[in-house]
Design goal:
The protein has 202 residues and is of the alpha/beta class. 44% of the residues lie in helices and 19% in strands.
Length: 202
């Protein structure tokens, strides 16, 4: 199912609002896709559109949970790290929510290359997870909706460089290679509930 992101928000909101909670009291929504595809833009649009129906919608960004470009320290490689990253999300977020409790997770400071202060994420009626690896198989199995955001690979690189600076080009090219391998291995795109064409810069 492919269409413009803005044209799909209303239908996605109706689908989410009409669903039953999937993780304790939480309706979990997962927004995945390549870097630069517009995941953050879509996640923000969904949260804003859902607010009149279900109140404030926290958005959890994968960038806050990665340990820099490696994702998970001591993983043998970045593709393997994506699988471990799903376990981190399960442990830090889904387990507390399943008990109806707020989740508490540290936020990565990429500039200091260290964990910063922790933030609480309530077990709200809807929580949106966005970022590469947030709709991997074990996470999308717990979600009321998994969304894949498509983008042309060349455009994706230019979006990220425009956002983060030319110095990041080498990093994002390497990242793009690894995320593509992970998404193929995991079947993220093929198994997503909905696929949209990305608009935006994340």
């Amino acid at each position: 199912m492919t269409s413009g992101t803005s044209g799909r928000v209303g239908a996605l909101v109706a689908r989410i609002a009409g669903s039953s909670p999937s993780v304790g009291p939480v309706r979990l929504v997962c927004v995945d896709g390549p870097a630069g595809s517009g995941k953050t833009t879509l996640a923000g649009a969904l949260a804003e559109a859902l607010r009149p129906h279900l109140g404030d919608v926290p958005v959890v960004h994968a960038d806050d949970l990665y340990e820099g470009w490696a994702l998970v320290a001591d993983a043998p490689d970045r593709v393997a790290a994506f699988a471990l990253f799903a376990e981190r999300i399960e442990r830090w977020l889904l387990e507390p929510w399943s008990r109806g409790e707020p989740a508490l997770h540290p936020v990565r400071d990429w500039y200091a290359d260290a964990w910063g202060p922790s933030v609480a994420v309530p077990a709200a009626p809807v929580v949106v997870l966005e970022g590469v690896g947030t709709a991997s198989r074990p996470l999308r199995a717990r979600a009321v909706l998994s969304v894949w955001v498509d983008v042309d690979p060349v455009l994706a690189i230019e979006r990220v460089v425009a956002r983060d600076g030319e110095a990041m080009r080498g990093e994002i090219v390497s990242w793009q290679h690894d995320e593509a391998r992970w998404h193929e291995l995991d079947g993220t795109r093929a198994e997503a509930d909905v696929r949209v064409r990305g608009e935006g810069t994340a």
